[in-house]
């Protein structure tokens, strides 16, 4: 068995600062995600979770601090280059092509990863290699049977599963999951939790999620963000009982 604690972090966030006017949305955030680890970031509304993700992705520039992937600083890299260097993301609001089928969405993702988007003018389904690979990803997220369904006509939970297939098809090293359970009922949440559980150990995952049941079922470590500051980082089992966490966020939910 590999000793994960000894491995170099796949993602490092080092002293990140970001203000919007007088509001410090990130106030010196430092955390890391190790290879194969699910590290959940939780915190109350407005704590700065989305702002953190946007800075990791390169959509928002920090005022100060650094984001490193595999030990390399990303500060000078635009968002598309970070994606190319191994940063995958599933969005809080779905980003699929609604007029394309589930299969076509994954094929397009594979094409964009291989830099062959110039093939777009052709019918993407003609390309056997992409179609076979896309089918495999659809199988991994449990959507084989829905391959010909239009993304816009799929149920919310299925669209989120498809989004995961689209993100995974790009072969990310680090996966940022921004509220993957948002808008899901208990059944869909349980399905997504099972899917994320099946990915455990293969990717470095930073998970932002309000669904505490899912967080405690999945996370190896939890960081708690309050007013743009990390007030706790540690194993999920400690987060449940830590007095700072309980006072800041979990309250009676953790009981
Ligand atoms: N572009 C912006 N301009 C001004 N203020 C912003 C901007 N983006 C975020 N904020 C503010 O920064 C703070 C952190 O917001 P953020 O969306 O990162 O929090 P969050 O933890 O993701 O919240 P939620 O759980 O509700 O999604 C909030 O007070 C928010 O109003």
Structure, explained:
It comes from Pigmentiphaga aceris. Keywords: ATP-binding, Cell membrane, Membrane, Nucleotide-binding, Transport. InterPro entries: AAA+_ATPase, ABC_AA/LPS_Transport, ABC_transporter-like_ATP-bd, BCA_ABC_TP_C, P-loop_NTPase. This protein is of the alpha/beta class and 255 residues long. It has 2 domains: 4-86 and 172-254, P-loop containing nucleotide triphosphate hydrolases (Rossmann fold); 100-171, no CATH class. Helices cover 35% and strands 25% of the residues. The protein contains 9 helices and 10 strands. The protein has a 6-stranded mixed sheet with strand order 6-7-8-3-9-10, with helices on both faces. A 4-stranded antiparallel sheet has the order 2-1-4-5, with helices on one face. A hairpin with a 2-residue loop joins strand 4 and strand 5 (72-73). The radius of gyration is 18 Å and the shape is globular. The chain starts with 8 loop residues before the first strand and ends in a 5-residue tail after the last helix. The model is unreliable at 1-5 (pLDDT under 50). The structure holds adenosine-5'-triphosphate (ATP). Adenosine-5'-triphosphate (ATP) is lined by residues 20, 23, 25, 43, 45-51.
């Amino acid at each position: 068995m590999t000793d994960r604690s000894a491995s170099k972090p796949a993602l490092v966030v080092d002293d990140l600062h970001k203000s919007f006017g007088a509001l410090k949305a990130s106030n010196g955030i430092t955390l890391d995600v190790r290879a194969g680890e699910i590290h959940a970031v939780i915190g109350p509304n407005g704590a700065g979770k989305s702002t953190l993700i946007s800075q990791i992705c390169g959509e928002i520039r920090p005022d100060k601090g650094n984001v490193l992937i595999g030990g390399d600083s990303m500060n000078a890299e635009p968002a598309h280059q970070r994606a190319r260097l191994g940063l995958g993301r599933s969005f809080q609001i779905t980003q699929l092509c609604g007029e394309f089928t589930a299969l076509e969405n994954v094929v397009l993702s594979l094409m964009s990863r291989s830099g062959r988007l110039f093939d777009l003018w052709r019918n993407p389904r003609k390309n056997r290699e992409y179609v076979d690979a896309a089918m495999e990803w659809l199988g991994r997220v449990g959507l084989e049977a829905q391959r010909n369904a239009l993304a816009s006509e799929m149920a919310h939970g299925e669209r989120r599963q498809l989004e995961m297939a689209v993100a995974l098809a790009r072969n990310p090293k680090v996966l940022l999951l921004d509220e993957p359970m948002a808008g899901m009922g208990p059944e869909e949440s349980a399905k997504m939790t099972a899917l994320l559980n099946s990915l455990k150990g293969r990717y470095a995952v930073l998970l932002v999620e309000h669904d505490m049941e899912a967080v405690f079922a999945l996370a190896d470590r939890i960081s708690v963000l309050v007013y743009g500051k990390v007030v706790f980082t540690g194993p999920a089992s400690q987060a449940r009982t830590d007095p700072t966490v309980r006072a800041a966020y979990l309250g009676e939910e953790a009981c």
